[in-house]
Design brief:
Number of helices: 11
Strand content: 15-25%
Radius of gyration: 19 Å
Number of domains: 2
CATH architecture of the largest domain: Alpha-Beta Complex
Number of strands: 10
Helix content: 40-55%
Shape: globular
Bound molecules: coenzyme A
Strand order of the largest sheet: 1-2-3-5-7-10
CATH topology of the largest domain: 2-enoyl-CoA Hydratase, Chain A, domain 1
Structural class: alpha/beta
């Protein structure tokens, strides 16, 4: 247990907050474990959307450098280090995960965004992955995922040059969805999360699973989608959506999932 990560649930939205502001939210092993546990639990409880947030001005300064030296993690080694447990839990999270970045997003603070479903940031946010500057290398698929999002030469600004991107560049290059004002930032992200949480939960889960499914033959994908579409057409969720349309009211998916 660590109090450096807090977990709160409001209206089926779980907020996992990195809360170590005196160290700019640098992440230690117990903090990764707490985050991993909260993500894993979200798959089995009534959480519909997860937000990962930080402290004002510091989303995360990345891995705690002392921790790195004390216990250098070996991803894919014999034991699963807490950081890998966390990243695996993030990739395996069946519910949508939204990153709320207000301030520094260094190292894994930026890498983790590549595995979230939506990401928002304040104007003062700075994104950087200074791995090569630290004589290290890109992590958790970022050498593949980031070039896929922004293109190889642009990814190399972050992954080779260790550039610092401001929020506007991060938005322009599709690392984040939007830059939102600092004032009321978390409320605004929570509102987006609640909007998503109000949707049909099985439909949301299936859509996320499809979006994150590895690339495949397009016909195979169409057939796979078709099976899910057909099954959703027979679902109580769809019945509620269609009935609400006929009755000219908003659908109520609160009783599902
Ligand atoms: N690991 C351990 N401690 C860290 C840390 C990290 N990744 N990032 C910041 N801290 C600590 C600092 O040591 C300092 O502690 P102290 O007050 O006990 O001396 C405190 O957080 C505040 O950091 P400081 O450097 O004074 O703040 P700043 O606003 O001037 O700079 C950063 C913030 C994030 C730019 C700078 O701290 C930094 O470059 N940190 C290292 C980032 C990094 O390399 N992360 C790993 C990537 S793999």
């Amino acid at each position: 247990m660590t109090e450096l990560v807090t977990v709160t649930d409001t209206n089926r939205v779980r907020t996992i907050r990195i809360n170590r502001p005196d160290k700019k939210n640098a992440l230690t092993r117990p903090m990764y474990t707490a985050m991993a546990d909260a993500l894993k639990a979200a798959n089995g409880d009534e959480t519909r959307v997860v937000i990962i947030a930080g402290a004002p001005g510091a989303f995360s300064a990345g891995n705690d450098l002392m921790d790195f030296m004390e216990a250098p993690p070996h991803i894919g080694g014999d034991e699963t280090p807490p950081v890998e447990d966390f990243m695996r839990a993030l990739l395996a999270c069946e519910k949508p995960v939204i990153a709320a970045v207000d301030g520094l997003a260094v190292g894994i603070g930026t890498t983790l965004l590549l595995h979230c479903d939506l990401a928002y940031a304040t104007p003062r946010s700075v994104f950087t992955t200074p791995f090569v500057n630290l004589a290290l290398a890109p992590e958790y698929g970022s050498s593949q995922v980031l070039p896929g999002i922004v293109g190889r030469v642009v990814a190399s600004e972050l992954l080779l040059l260790g550039a610092k991107w401001d929020a506007a560049r991060a938005e322009a290059k599709h690392l984040i969805n939007a830059v939102l004002a600092e004032e009321g930032f978390e409320d605004a992200v929570h509102k987006i999360a609640e909007e998503l949480a109000a949707k049909a939960p099985a439909a949301v889960k299936e859509a996320k699973a499809l979006i994150t499914r590895p690339e495949e033959d397009l016909h195979a994908r169409i057939v796979h989608e078709g099976g899910i579409f057909a099954s959703q057409l027979r679902s109580e969720e769809f019945k509620e959506a269609a009935t609400a349309f006929m009755e000219r009211r908003a659908p109520d998916f609160s009783k599902f999932g």
